[in-house]
Structure formats: structure tokens, C-alpha cells
What we know:
The chain is of the alpha+beta class. Helix content is 40%, strand content 13%. A hairpin with a 2-residue loop joins strand 13 (536-542) and strand 14 (545-548).
Amino acid sequence: MLVNQKLVSNGKRKAVELLIVHVNDATEQIAVSDLLDQIPRRPKVLNALYVAEMLRTCAWRMESHDLPQELFAIDESISEKHLIKRDKAWMAISPLIEDDEILCNYLYGPVEGIVAELVESSGTSKKFITGSINRYFVMGGIKNSLLPQYFFCGKQFSLREAPESLVDGAINLASKPGRETKYGNPFRQVTQLDVDNIRKFSTKIRNGQQVVLEDIYKEFCGSYLSTVIKPKEAPDEDIAEPFRMVLDRRNLISSRAFKRQLNKIISRLDWIRKRVGQKNYERDHAGKTGVAHKGLRGPTSRYEIDSTVADIYIRYPFSNELLSIGRPIIYFVIDTVTGMIVGVHVCFHGPDWHGAGQALLNAFTEKVAFCKQFGVDIEEADWPCHHVCRELTGDRGTENSDKNLSSLVKGLIGVSIVNLNAYHRGDCKGTVEKTFDTAQKRAITYEAGRVEKVYRYEDKHASRRALYTYDEFMKILIKTILVSNNTSERINGRTFEMERDDVAFTSRDAWVYGLSNMMITPTISRDRLIFALLPEVKGTIRAQGVFFRGLFYSSDKFEKLKKIDEAKNFGRKQIAVRYTDCSTNHIWYRDDETRVLYQLNLTDRSEAYKNQLWASVMHRLEIVKGQLALLSEKRFTAEVINFMDLSRGEEQLKRNLKGLKKTKAKGIAAGIKERGAVEGIVQKHQDGKNMIAALSGGNTKTEMTQSAATNTWVDPTSVPYEEVYHG
């Protein structure tokens, strides 16, 4: 047992809370002060064996006792008047405290003579001496225990349980604190019942809204400070429904008192969380004690990729008028460990996988040729970033779908892990998010057509102040990236080895040092990178070729695989193909078994869509579908009309044949070949007559004779020549 530990009772026994102020090992006695006393009293004496028995039987338990923090303050932080009072009490009782023999006699023996000597030597009263001694032991037994207990002011205050009513039913306002109400009726004071109701009400405050405390106060009054009135003895024809009525002001607590109690229950951080929601709070308001590079070995361990709309309008270069083509989308690829900008891409489409793929391709390839096409000449050492990362972190957007990212984790490049952050959690890739702000502030000025966050209506719109073309904007963006990589300080990512070797604090220095001392990076060909970063989709092998997005593809090399023949004879089959949305001319297929890459070209069946963008083709195919649907409707109508005409013609022919003689035989009719031969001769004669008429330019006598003969021969009622002249 130690001084300033306390003995506390267990269970439902009579409450005991005793503070140990002295332990006498010689007599096995313990001096304790009762902490439950409102006014400190002289310490009591307990037998150590008795205390041990109470602890053994679990009637009591031992606990640590926390003293007020104000008692440990240094003299410089305490007001002078409090120090004077402390020192006066200390001078009065110090002869007792500093002499162990006198102290033991005071705690464990008679006290009359000791207190009288202290009164005489200090010139104070007995009450002052005993009160100072008792307060000294209860407050921890240190010199500052004698300080005036100003820090307890207000802590012992307790509210009424509920509002008190007078005989006439009015609320008792006799002990109401605060200023007297000058105009109107006063509010009543807050009670413990009000605090409990406010605590219950606080759980019903809705999240995700701008909180107006005055509106919440009105809602509280309507819920807890109102009464329900139900009309009595109402006529049957009336609807006697109960209604709620707010009580008189003398039965209400004030708005100020309500807000004060509510803010005790709901902290300022909780108000922010209610207003913005949990996700926004975690993203924008929660503290970030960790670092993004935790657990990463060095450069290329993880890249972060993201896109944003640039705060600038780009000028249209092919016009003698100042026109804008809109705000481009910037893709950045950032190394998490060093903060190095390793890749960039700017485009006017997306965000989509094409833009993200181009940014990654730029990150994985050298930058000298890339910068040169925009008029920036650099050395390899100025931007030494052409390495494939091991991990990639991005948004969970439509462009970062599993099918687009699958190639990165299938071994085509070597990216082993792809992290897709939760929706609306940009703080999970804070390195690239912060880089956007830095780059746009450095590269874009107001004169260049920057979009201001707070728009001033007296200024021209930023689209009318476009200064840079696409190539010019890329030039200043590249220069800004070079400045950022070579001058931005990188302190948090430093290791012991970097400090030992006196590595500079820039991102480029950390990048170069990390690659040469920590990492082994692979080299991948540009062709392999391009293929891996193309989006992968499904195509169908048909008898006419590989069908993809409504078009057919094939090549001589691919046809030798006999997959098209198999599709014609055994059914269609789906394969994985890759494409670029820049052109419809080609798609690519990679055989998983042989690892051979096949380029499939657009066949003659789809020649109409050659040398086109996929966006244009997809739009045209939708139009074609509509046109074919209209043609199908027209064809159906024509077929119905034709069927009706044929039906009517057959009915007419049946009626015309009613007078002809019909046989009852069921076998094949006799004389079909002979009659067919006669019909053939007649057709030849008619064709010859038409040719003679075309060559002679008019009818002849021969034609008239032949015509008469023909008319006779085709008459179904005529008889053979032999029957006429040899009858």
C-alpha cells in the first residue's frame, strides 16, 4: 500500500472511499482520510491487518487516486494572492509536516498539545490550523495542497431534478440564476430533466445538413416543451382530434440555455461530421498522422494516378478570332515515395482508359523524345523516369475497371498490385491530389485564362481570355513539372541511409538515390507496354471473320490458325482482343499458348468504316440500325401486300378454270414434255419477233402473220392441225 492510493468498497455495500495519507510500518497502522466528507476531517487510523482482510475478501479494492492537475502547476503560473495564502498555511503547519515524530504523534496519538503549539507559534486560530492540516492530507500531501481550491469553483454545482411549481401552478423562479428579465416574461432555469431530454433529442438530429441551432431549438420546444390538448364534449359532427400546443414562456428554457447544453453533448467536431457526412469528414477534416509511403521500399514501389480538369481554357489555333476549345483534362502519375512526377498526359476526352493508359505509357517510357515534340530540350538526367512500378493506386472510376487493369496484373508489364480507392476518397492518394494544386498554381496565371474559384462578373469570362494553344500549354506544363521535380523539398520520405549519405532534399535526388541503392527495376519494350495498356474487350469469331463492335476483322496470318473455319463448322467462339479508340483499322489478338501477337485488319465487309474514329463509327452504326429497322418495317408491309395480291390472283384464276374439263386421275399428267416443247418454240418465236422489231424500227407483214399464228397457237380452245384438215 502506498500513500495517495485509495480504498473503495465493492458491490452494494455502504460506500467507502478512503485515501491513504500515511503508513506506519512499526505499529502496522494506516492513516486514511475520508473522501466522502464534504469538509476534510482529521485522518482516521486503521489496522493494517484489518485492511488486508477487507482486501482479501474483496469487500474493498485498491485504486489509484488522481489529484487535480492544478496542484502540479509551477509558482510562475499561479497568481500571487494564491501563493500568499498557500505560504501562510504552509508556515503555520510546516513544524508538524517536516518532523516525522511529531507527525506520527499527531496521526496516531493525542493532538491537543501539538495543535496548541502550532496555534501559538503561528499566531493563527485553531480552526485555521486543523483545517489546513486536514486539507493538506486530503489534497495529496504536497505544498500546493494548501492552495485555495479555486479550481473547484462551479464543479460542485448540481441542477434541480425537474421544474418546481408553486401552489397556484406557476413555475418557481426564485432561485433562477442570471440577469432579471426586463421586458416580457422570463424563461425558467434548466433542470436535469431538460438535460436528459436534450441528450435524447440530440440523437434525432439529422446528418448531412447545414445545422441552424435556432431551428433545432424550435423543434425541441415542439417535441419536449409542449402539451397535447384534446377537446372534450365536442359535438358528434365535429372531429375532435388532439393537437399540440407550445407552453408559455415561463415553462420554457431559453434558446441560449438550450444551445449551451446541446453544445456540451455535441462537440464542434461532431457538428462538422453531421454537416458534411462521415466520408467527407474522413477525407477533409480528419487528422492524417500516417504517411503515404509507409511500408514501401523505395522509388517505383507505388505510383498514384489521377485526373483533374485544368483551371485554364485552351485557345483554338486554326482561326483568326480568339476562340476557346474548352478546359483540358490533366493526368498525373506520381511516385508515392519521392513525390516525383513520373508521367503526364493532357487531353480533351474522358476521363477514360485511353487517357489513363497514355499517362501510364508516358510514365513507363523515357521523356527526352516526349519533351522534344513540344519544343523542350532536356537531358535524360533532367527527368530520369522510365520505370515500371510494382503497385498502382487510382480512383474507383469507370476508366479504372477490372477489365482495363487486368493486363497490369497478368504479367504483361509486371505491376503486381492495383489499389482502387473507395468512392469519393481522394485523400487515399493525397500525393497526386496535392500535386494537382501545386502544378496548376505554378503553371497557370490569370492572364493565361485561369478559371477563378470566385467569379467576378465585371471581368471577362476565362474562355474569352484563352492565351495558350494545346502545344504551348504542354510546353509550360512540362517546364513546371521539371521545376517541381528538381526543386520541391522532400523531407518526410527520407531514410537513415539518405541522411548518412547527405542526399539532397529534392524529389529528383531522392529518386536517383533510391533507384541506385534500393530498387532493381526491369526494362520492358515499348511495344509490349503499348499492347498492355490498350483496353481489352471480347470479340466473336464468326465464319466471316472476328466480329467486334459491329465490324469484321481478319488477316492472312490469323486465318492460318483455322479458328474461322472452326467457327463456321462448330459454332462461334469469343476471344479477348485489344483496340485503340483512335482508329477502326486494326485490332490485336494475343494467343495465350504460343504468345504470338496477331494484328487483325478491317475486312472488305466493313470497308465503309475504314480510317474512322470509334466514336464516329459507333454513332454511325446506331444510325444504320435505325435505317435498317425502317427498311424492315417497309419490307414487311410490301410482303403483306404482295401476299394479298397473290391470293386474289389465285382466286381469280380458279374461277376462270371452272369451265375446263378435269380428269379424276391422281398420277402424273401425260404429255407434259410435248406441251413444254411447244411452249419453248413459242417463246423463241416471240424473242425473235422482238429482235426483228428492234432492228427494223417498225412492224412488218411477216410480224402480223406470225402474230396471228401465235395467237392461234396459244388459244387453249384450238385443236391440232391434223384434226382440221384430216378430220
